[in-house]
Design goal:
Strand order of the largest sheet: 14-13-12-15-16-18-17
Number of strands: 18
Number of domains: 3
Helix content: 10-25%
Radius of gyration: 23 Å
Number of helices: 9
CATH class of the largest domain: Alpha Beta
Order of helices and strands: EEEEEEHEEEHHEEHEHEHEHEHEHEE
Distance between the termini: 43 Å
CATH architecture of the largest domain: 3-Layer(aba) Sandwich
CATH topology of the largest domain: Rossmann fold
Largest sheet: 7 strands, mixed
Strand content: 25-35%
Mean pLDDT: 91
Length: 402
Amino acid sequence: MKNNNSKTHKNVNTDKRGSGLESLLHSEHIVDVEKLVVGGDALARIQYQDKSLVVFIPLAAPNEKVKIKITHVEKNHLNGEIIEILSASSSRRPPPCQYFTACGGCSWQHITEAEQVLQKELILTDLLKKFIPEHQYSLLPTVNSPKCFNYRNRIQLKQLGSEIGYFKKGSHQIVDINSCLIAEDDISTKIPELKKNLRPSKEIRKFEIRINHLNQIEHYPIGEDGEGLSFSQVNNQVNEQLVNTTLDLIKPLNPQFLTELYAGAGNFTFPLLRELTHTQIESVEMNPKLTAFSTKKLTEMKLQKRLFAFTSDCESFVSRRDLSNDLILLDPPRSGCSDIVLSKVIEASPNCLVYISCHPVFLARDLKKILTSCPEYKISHLQIFDMFPQTDHFETLVLLSK
């Protein structure tokens, strides 16, 4: 929007970024907030000379008018902070958590859950329009979390001195907490006990508190042996719906041979083995503790002849072994798939490809690479699973089929 409320500032020398926008630093503007974006900030624009500049604003809400101050100048965008809310969004609410405005653990508690879901859908569709504008798809209704708070079955906290909590937004300063609203109650009540028993630390230490597979509360420093099986979906109820939907998509395909890359501890592997009684699966996971867990569970289920669990990074595996022509299942980390993995997946050209993503930017990037090389694929299923309420994070399930 054109802004007539900007303060006038003298030009200063261009800094190392070379953006020429340094005169805007600390200037004040009235802006209309358009939407929320990946990373959790809101997006607005200001007019500067002949340019429309993007400004990222934390703690703003869609469709509201705010007065801001520019806090950082980057080459292609600005960062600002709210000075005054002039016209509040209808989706704005008082954040339920007492630590929210400082704590970096959540980004969207000031917005209703309905608006959070709407903004996640907008984030995904905007990215797909940018990366694969020529492809058609229908975004199915989002699978909402039954619990919007107290849903996390594990949290990671930082300690410095006698303080323990999460980092402040945009810093490595610790917000000292005694509870966490997004953690399951049993985990949240463990925090004061942990603080009481820990010795003060001169260095930043990281701890995980989780509910283990025996439904017991445990905690340990990150990096010790206990971390081995800690990677799991943090929201049990939404994860169950994600697994079930994935099974519903795969069962009618009845693949004879399935390749599963980034298999973890078998979140999808074992449900697939139970449901697809004639399917042989090769699963790949780099963490030896996770594959050891899978192998032990495999023996208990007496399914050794149907699952081959490889301890390997996916790049090495795909370089030396053929992938399934029937179906490949990808559940990569936040950074998505590497070029090596994607090229081998494209080369295998399976009849169907299931991709579970926890970062929409890298999902859109990878879909562009796949669909550019294999235009015969269509997006048969596209759905968000709101695994992480109160944050900008979400899971996306995609089925590509020929």
